[in-house]
Amino acid sequence: MERIMISGANRGIGLEFVRQWLSRADVQVLATARSPQQAGELNDMAGRQLTVLPMDVSDPASVRSAVARVAEAVEGLDLLVNNAAIKPPDAEQRLATLDPDSMLQTLRVNSLGPLLLARECVPLLRRGSRPRLVNISSGMGSLSRKQSGGQYAYCSSKSALNMVTRGLAADLGPSGIVVCSLHPGWVRTEMGGMQASLSTHESVAALLRVIDSLTHADNGSYLDPERETIPW
């Protein structure tokens, strides 16, 4: 039985991860959402294989509470997917109209939140089988690829998340936990927009192939859906 925890599972990529995991027989999923009462599609799937829990990754107390409930349900975690993220409106991310509070909240959710959740889950991951910790990043977090202005909050938050990945890889890799950042591609979601090239099904199917194949050689890596390395 593979025991999986995922944040931000109420919509988009997170919801599709849950759908595809539940098609597997030997999986137990602990899925979180900031407001589970509003996550209709996620709640409709709840049952023997899926437990839905409230968690706001920007609130340390909420993170601790959620992980405590996970620890009551499972003895260990085999996979943690840090998926919860926000992206402010473009107008709040332009140089001339930058909203400092919006940028700080984006960093809190997209960068600090995954770090806090990872920290709380370390004891469970250490009791897992072939434990993996996956941070859902973005190609927009690549410093090398950044050639345009704007998107300051989102791009900075994903670059910071990549640094979190590197730090966690160094801290946790020696105990057997594989940590990596994954870029999901340009996906048709509320965040990615309807002009994006990939459906959520296509993106998640590719990401699951990558996640299933991770080894210790991938610790601290930054990979795309085709398992190609992205430059930091």
Topology record:
Blueprint: E1 2-6, H1 12-22, E2 27-33, H2 40-45, E3 50-54, H3 60-73, E4 79-82, H4 100-126, E5 132-136, H5 152-172, E6 178-182, H6 200-213, E7 221-223
Parallel strand pairs: 1-2, 1-4, 2-3, 4-5, 5-6, 6-7
Overview of the molecule:
The chain has 232 residues and is of the alpha/beta class. Helix content is 40%, strand content 15%. The protein has helices at 12-22, 40-45, 60-73, 100-126, 152-172, 200-213, and strands at 2-6, 27-33, 50-54, 79-82, 132-136, 178-182, 221-223. It has a seven-stranded parallel sheet, sandwiched between helices. Strand 6 (178-182), helix 6 (200-213) and strand 7 (221-223) form a beta-alpha-beta unit. It starts with a strand and ends in a 9-residue tail after the last strand. The mean pLDDT is 95.
Task: Write a concise synopsis of the structure shown.
The chain is of the alpha/beta class and 232 residues long. It has helices at residues 12-22, 40-45, 60-73, 100-126, 152-172, 200-213, and strands at 2-6, 27-33, 50-54, 79-82, 132-136, 178-182, 221-223. The chain has one domain (2-223): Rossmann fold (3-Layer(aba) Sandwich).
